[in-house]
Amino acid sequence: MAKQPRPVHQLTSAQFDRMFPVGDEDACKAYLVARRWPNGVACPRCGNAAVYDLPSRKWHWQCERCATDGYRFSVTVGTIFENTNKPLRDWYKLVHLMMTSKKGISARQMGRYMGFGSVKTAWLMAHKIRTALIEPETKLGGIVEVDETFIGGKKKNQHWDKRVPGRGHTGKIPVAGAVSRKGNVVARVVRDVRTETLVKFVREMVSNKVSLLCTDDAAAYRDLKAEYPHGSVDHKRRQYVVGAVHTNTIEGFWSIFKRGIVGTFHKVSAKYLPLYVAEFQFRYNNRHNDDIFGAAIEGC
Ligand SMILES: [Zn+2]
């Protein structure tokens, strides 16, 4: 297997415009149908594949299995686009912007770019998209690095402290992360960085069949030695790489995440931090996926 991942060219702006011409909602709806129902339209309630096109309403179908008088549904039912008053193309454009910006894109920037009257509109839409990017949990294997970091704590961010009681005086929010080298990352906002919290995180996110679990020398991880093949580096002693043991990959993820949060979003409240974590995790895990846009729409 080649060591370097092949370069991926994701959807360009010009390609986007060709796929979804301005004002062409049908193109967007056809794309959504193909993504939601790759094997043909099925009833979102009961899974019935023998649904009927509603001749009177485009992009609507009827299922006669799960309701006596027929259940009617549209292409957007059950998606984040349901009941929206914005064109699907606007949503797609936002998804595309988010997927192509490594450090994320602020609501203010999105609002300006899209010509929305208010920042709030872009902010609400972006948060809906972020909820769609939350990935199902699967346990990591191979060589896995685990580390934790803190977000916030600067004077300008002190409102975090007030909104989330019990985080101490610093206002810093701990985030735990695990990454499979050359594979996926999982990150979660955690209550604290006590041993029981971090050990629980590792047990939930990392398979105990890993070939190696790498951490720094934090006391919290020492309890894992009995369950995992565990190696640690002592950063306090300026030890960073010992054989295969290092935490450079997860630290690389933290650096992208922090540059994004600090540089782009400035005032992320603790309440919404998990959504930003989901966004950065999704982008990282699809970094070699040239159809990252389609993967994102699939989750919507
Ligand atoms: Zn049905």
Number of β-strand runs: 8
At the fold tier of CATH, the topology name of the domain at 143-277 is: Nucleotidyltransferase, domain 5
Low-pLDDT windows of residues: 155-169
What is the strand arrangement across the widest sheet?
Answer: 6-5-4-7-8
Tally of helical segments = 10
Sheet with the most strands?
5 strands, mixed
Bound molecules: zinc ion
Averaged pLDDT: 90
What does this structure look like?
The protein has a five-stranded mixed β-sheet with strand order 6-5-4-7-8, with helices on both faces. A three-stranded antiparallel β-sheet has the order 1-2-3, with no helix packed on it. Helix 3 (88-100) packs across helix 5, helix 4 (107-114) crosses helix 5 (119-133) and helix 8 (248-265) crosses helix 9 (273-285). The chain is an alpha/beta fold. The longest helix has 18 residues, at 248-265. Among the domains are: 24-82, no CATH class; 143-277, 2-Layer Sandwich (Nucleotidyltransferase, domain 5), CATH 3.30.420. The protein is globular and about 70 Å long. The protein has helices at 13-19, 25-36, 88-100, 107-114, 119-133, 159-163, 195-205, 248-265, 273-285, 292-299, and strands spanning 52-53, 60-63, 71-74, 143-151, 173-180, 185-189, 212-216, 230-233. It contains ten helices and eight strands. Residues 155-169 have low confidence and may be disordered. Bound molecules: zinc ion (ZN).
